[in-house]
């Protein structure tokens, strides 16, 4: 491009930036927007946000703004003006007014890759029906009577193959993928599921790219992988339409009076596989990491699980619901891991109309981010909020109003349907893991929070089976 063109472009850019700046200042005064700063033109504060969440201590990004402006503030990230809430009451208001005042809003990459018939993108009455259908496949009575046995069996099956050095994050992903495939369509793990899983990895990598195939090879690869996954799932759906009826999620979708098309069913299952796969495996890995770094908690957890095993005698004997219910300290570990790790750190929504809250206006069309993380890590709500301390859940004080300040699974109409299932999976995994292996980290590894919560090196550990020496 000739230099003569760049100079006018530069002036144009400066001019529009100045205009934008003045308009925003005007907006702030007229509408009583929450206070805040929009940062640089166009990029806003996106770079500060990303660099904070790419570190193992992202808290300063929100802390600084909360200190300056209060728990509801305005910023400009990912190309849009966004109201951040670090306030539990406001977060609850946002969750409870889903579909009335706020609607969900995801980046183009995620909605393209998940597909429009996924639970995440559905709205209104259809969402309500599908949400409760999903819940009815993951509620506690179903887990107790049907799923627990498979969960226990598939976790044991996966643990069998561990020797020496394992990447815990990878192994946990295999487990959660196998479990989800089993639950959705009754398949046991094998070559088919492992091939499918490899494609899934590519799809998920595409979630946080620019959804423009020309610019991003990762996105191109993700689109291709999505097509392959959809083809594989479509085949299964077609077979099952003709073949036998089974009591699984796919069976329920096929039997539903809604007469869903193949495409609808495939989108729906494809997205549930993402949901079941990513989050639970991360929480499994982080629980082990936190426990490794908190030896007292690990010792107490081991004792709880050794006692359960001792009562059973044979290590092959399956876990029962009463065993799960007897894991009281484990439940504290589960809650504390969810609180500190915040796999879903918060949710983006869009204001459907001008909304007045706490004396401010959120203008129609603006983005809102309800930060659960900011609440979970706020010392006003949890003492020593930034340390992993499972014992806090033993005292009543912390749990007096957990519904308001503790929302690891969100809430309202979009409450995570897998909230109970993921707790059970994590508990059974911890049971089998600590009774079978001892381990130590093979390398230093740290947690990062962008684009998703994960450890940088997939948490490599060296495992040794407990009591093997005796053989
Ligand atoms: C769980 O869902 C099943 C249907 O799948 C239903 O019959 C049962 O009542 C539900 N149980 C609970 C505790 O909600
Ligand atoms: C864990 O958190 C849930 C809320 O999600 C609460 O109902 C439960 O009592 C907590 N468990 C313990 C052991 O405090």
UniProtKB/TrEMBL annotation:
Family: Belongs to the cytochrome P450 family.
Gene Ontology CC annotations of this record: membrane
Organism: Clitoria ternatea
Annotated binding of heme, by residue: 416
Main subcellular location: membrane
Location within or outside the cell: Membrane
A Gene Ontology biological process term: sterol metabolic process
A Pfam family: p450
The entry's keywords: Heme, Iron, Membrane, Metal-binding, Monooxygenase, Oxidoreductase, Transmembrane, Transmembrane helix
Gene Ontology terms for molecular function: heme binding; iron ion binding; monooxygenase activity; oxidoreductase activity, acting on paired donors, with incorporation or reduction of molecular oxygen
Protein name: Cytochrome P450
Gene3D superfamilies: Cytochrome P450
InterPro entries reported for this sequence: Cyt_P450, Cyt_P450_CS, Cyt_P450_E_grp-I, Cyt_P450_sf
């Amino acid at each position: 491009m000739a230099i003569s063109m760049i100079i006018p472009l530069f002036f144009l850019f400066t001019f529009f930036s100045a205009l934008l700046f003045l308009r925003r200042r005007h907006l702030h005064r007229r509408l009583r927007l929450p206070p805040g700063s929009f940062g640089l033109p166009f990029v806003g504060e996106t770079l500060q946000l990303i660099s904070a969440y790419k570190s193992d201590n992202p808290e300063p990004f929100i802390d600084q703004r909360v200190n300056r402006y209060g728990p509801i503030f305005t910023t400009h990230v990912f190309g849009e003006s966004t109201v951040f809430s670090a306030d539990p009451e406001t977060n609850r208001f946002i969750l409870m007014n889903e579909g009335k005042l706020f609607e969900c809003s995801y980046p183009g990459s995620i909605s393209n890759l998940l597909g429009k018939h996924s639970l995440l993108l559905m709205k209104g009455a259809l969402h309500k029906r599908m949400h409760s259908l999903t819940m009815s496949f993951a509620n506690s009575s179903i887990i107790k009577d049907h799923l627990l046995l498979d969960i226990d069996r598939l976790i044991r099956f996966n643990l069998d193959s561990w020797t020496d050095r394992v990447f815990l994050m990878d192994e946990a992903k295999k487990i959660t993928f196998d479990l989800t495939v089993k639950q959705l369509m009754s398949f046991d793990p094998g070559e088919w599921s492992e091939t499918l899983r490899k494609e899934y990895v590519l799809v998920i990598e595409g979630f946080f790219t620019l959804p423009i195939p020309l610019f991003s090879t990762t996105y191109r690869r993700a689109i291709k992988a999505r097509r392959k996954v959809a083809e594989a799932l479509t085949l299964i759906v077609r077979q099952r339409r003709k073949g036998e009826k089974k009591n699984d999620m796919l069976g329920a979708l096929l039997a539903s009076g809604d007469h869903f098309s193949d495409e609808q069913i495939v989108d729906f299952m494809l997205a549930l596989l993402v949901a079941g796969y990513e989050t639970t495996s991360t929480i499994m890995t982080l629980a082990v990491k936190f426990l490794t770094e908190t030896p007292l908690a690990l010792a107490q957890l081991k004792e709880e699980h050794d006692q359960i095993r001792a009562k059973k005698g044979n290590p092959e004997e399956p876990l029962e619901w009463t065993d799960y219910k007897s894991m009281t300290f484990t439940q504290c570990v589960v809650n504390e891991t969810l609180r500190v790790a915040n796999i879903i750190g918060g949710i983006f929504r869009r204001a459907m109309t001008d909304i007045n809250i706490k004396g401010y206006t959120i203008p129609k069309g603006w983005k809102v981010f309800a930060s659960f993380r900011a609440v979970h890590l706020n010392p006003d709500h949890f003492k020593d909020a930034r340390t992993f301390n499972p014992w806090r859940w033993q005292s009543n004080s912390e749990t007096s109003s957990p519904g308001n300040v503790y929302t690891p699974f969100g809430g309202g109409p979009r409450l995570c349907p897998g909230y109970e299932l993921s707790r059970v999976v994590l508990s059974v995994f911890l049971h089998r893991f600590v009774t079978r292996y001892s381990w130590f980290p093979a390398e230093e590894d740290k947690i990062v929070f962008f684009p998703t919560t994960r450890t940088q090196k997939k948490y490599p550990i060296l495992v040794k089976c407990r009591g093997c020496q005796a053989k």
